[in-house]
Each structure stands twice: as structure tokens, then as C-alpha cells.
Design a protein that fits this description.
ph1033 like fold, single chain, seven-stranded mixed beta sheet, alpha+beta, 7 helices, 25% strand
Length: 249
């Protein structure tokens, strides 16, 4: 039954009818399908066992009609993943499977915020407080405040002239906070903030060895800009970041 279920595309379960006496049903997760099963049907005994089969079919029909089921969610994501052919992206470098105690998202869905620090005093503040702030105005902040910015999982820091960096941090909060100038100063920010409001992330440095202690060439990142725009924060996927890994001797 496993072979039939796995070999036939979009099969939710595999079930057999046999001339026996015992009903068997096994669910793959928490719902009636996907699963495997066997139903005893004896033609010589007046179709004994058809009642179990009928009840099972009615349960499956009711389950398929439930648009809020886990199977419906699985179907949605399976379609989203397989609707196009693979783009040829390969990633064989070492990356952690867990993040903040939970299974990490696939690298193509994991966002990295590439951030800039303008002085050693600001960098020391980041290390001391475990906070990183970006401006909300379009002049020096990200071009668009979207889900990639607010849902970033990692922060890669670079300073002036540091176009190859291994200064990688994990973003520990679920989402950044909005802090005003007064709140930043209360946190000991080393200079007077020039804007009224900032987006602030909680961060901590990744543990040694999680990413093979590598460095990345930010000039190879999609979205990297030169000149004064090089200080503007932007986002990339973890897959794109790993493509720019500098060879480790």
C-alpha cells in the first residue's frame, strides 16, 4: 500500500478491500487522510464489513470539504512549491537546521537583513545592548517596509570599507519594535538620533561554527548599491547570501 500511495501522484491514501475480518486504518499525521487502511468485505457473508467502509468514505468526504484542515494547508504549499520547475539553486554549505529552538525555514524562504554601522561606538552599542536599529524614512532606510524586512531572521553587519564580512547575527524577536528618539537615547544610544522613529531588532551573534565561520562578499548580493547608498539596509535570502561565501582557506 505504501508503494501505491507514494507512486501515484497526488494520492492521499491507499486502502484495500479483502476477505477477512479485521478493519485496519492508520493516519499519516493527525487527520483521517493521508493514511493507509484495509477493510474486510466478504461477499459470501452478505457484504459484511460494508458499514465500516461506508462510514470511512463519509468521513473522508466531510474532511475534504473542510477548507481549514491541515491537509488543505499542505496542499496549498505543495502547489506553491511544485508549480514551477526548480531554479537550479544548490546549497551544500553548512547552515543550522534549528533557529531559536525550532526547525528553521528553508534557506530560499529565510530572509537576511544586510545592515550597516557607521562607527565603532555604534557597533559597541549593538554588542552591548543586543539591539540594531534602522531608519524608517525612505532616504536612508530600506526602500520598502515589507514582510522581508519585518520578518528577517538574520542580520549581516558591515562597516565602512568592510565589503567582506562574517559578522552574522541571529534576530531573536518575532518582529522588530518601533522606538522613538527618546527611547533610543534611554537605551544609551551613542549619538543623537536624527529621525523621530526607528525599527529596532533584538539580535545576538551566531554561535561559532554554525556557518563554518565564513565571510561573505556583499558586493555579490542582489540589491547591493555602491556609493552613499551602500549604507542603506536591504534584504536577501539565505540562499543568495551563501552564494557569495568567500572561499575558506
Amino acid at each position: 500500500m505504501h508503494a501505491y500511495k507514494d507512486a501515484i501522484r497526488r494520492t492521499a491514501g491507499a486502502y484495500v478491500l479483502y476477505p477477512g475480518t479485521e478493519t485496519f486504518s492508520c493516519t499519516g499525521f493527525h487527520e483521517i487522510i493521508p493514511g493507509l487502511g484495509a477493510f474486510p468485505v466478504s461477499p459470501s457473508n452478505g457484504g459484511n464489513g460494508l458499514g465500516h467502509l461506508r462510514n470511512f468514505i463519509l468521513e473522508v468526504v466531510d474532511h475534504v470539504a473542510n477548507r481549514a484542515s491541515q491537509r488543505e494547508e499542505l496542499s496549498f504549499y505543495a502547489y506553491a512549491i511544485h508549480k514551477e520547475k526548480p531554479k537550479g539553486t544548490e546549497l551544500h554549505e553548512m547552515i543550522p537546521e534549528m533557529r531559536n529552538g525550532f526547525r528553521a525555514e528553508p534557506p530560499v524562504q529565510t530572509t537576511v537583513l544586510v545592515g550597516y554601522y557607521k562607527s565603532e561606538q555604534q557597533y559597541e552599542w549593538i554588542c552591548d545592548k543586543g539591539l540594531y536599529n534602522i531608519r524608517l524614512d525612505s532616504a536612508a532606510g530600506p526602500e520598502t517596509i515589507n514582510s522581508a524586512v519585518t520578518g528577517a531572521r538574520y542580520l549581516l553587519l558591515h562597516g565602512k570599507g568592510k565589503l567582506e564580512t562574517g559578522d552574522l547575527w541571529i534576530i531573536t524577536g518575532e518582529s522588530p519594535a518601533i522606538m522613538d528618539r527618546k527611547a533610543l537615547l534611554a537605551e544609551g544610544y551613542p549619538t543623537r538620533p536624527g529621525q523621530e522613529f526607528y525599527m529596532v531588532y533584538q539580535v545576538k551573534q551566531v554561535e561559532q561554527g554554525q556557518f563554518a565561520d565564513g565571510k561573505w562578499n556583499i558586493r555579490k548580493f542582489p540589491g547591493y548599491a555602491t556609493g552613499r547608498s551602500s549604507a542603506r539596509p536591504f534584504t536577501i535570502t539565505l540562499s543568495d547570501m551563501m552564494k557569495a561565501l568567500v572561499a575558506i582557506d
